[in-house]
Amino acid sequence: MSHQIILPDGWPTPKGYSNGILAEKGRTLYLAGQVGWTPEEKFASDKLAPQFEQALKNIVAVVAKSGGKPEHICKMTCFCKDRDQYLASRKKLGKIWKEVIGNHYPCMSMIFVVDLLDHPALIEIEATAVIPE
Fold first, then answer.
1. pLDDT tens figures, 35-91
2. Is residue 124 packed enough to be buried (19+ CB in 10 Å), middle (13-18) or exposed (0-12)?
3. Residue 16 contacts residue 1 (beta carbons within 8 Å)
């Protein structure tokens, strides 16, 4: 792999994310925020878990089009409208993560917001990947 997980001495291993990733040579891919709609821009659900799954699949599709794999994702920022639904769904979201992304955990931030542009979006995910040359 062309990335090294950075964990300062004495820090506990984070659950579900990395504190730092050192990317080696490669092409940097910046992904626009992806919501949980299909490639036809249709929402199949107004629930968080299915939207999260579709948004992750959208991220993976853009990375794949660039010649990359999920493990090349270095940074993700998630914007979520419903903190309570997120907290109640964490176990299900973790299962979806493993199915779509696998055992790779990029640097991540979760930000709760009042609203998102595309209705009825509950989550939007943006990412940065470094694709090996």
1. 999 999 999 999 999 999 999 999 999 999 999 999 999 999 999 999 999 999 999
2. buried
3. no
CB 75 within 8 A of CB 127: yes
First to last CA, the chain: 12
**CA 27 to chain CA mean position, Å:** 19
**What is the residue range of 126's domain?**
3-131
Query: What's the token pair of residue 96?
Result: 């979806």
Mind listing the pLDDT tens digit for each residue in 98-117?
A: 999 999 999 999 999 999 99
The number of distinct structural domains making up the chain is 1
- Rounded to two decimals, what is the model's pTM? 0.93
List C-alpha distances in Å: 123 to 18, 52, 99, 110, 118. Answer: 20, 7, 18, 10, 10
**Distance between CA atoms of residues 23 and 40, nearest Å:** 33
- CATH number of the domain at 62, please: 3.30.1330.40
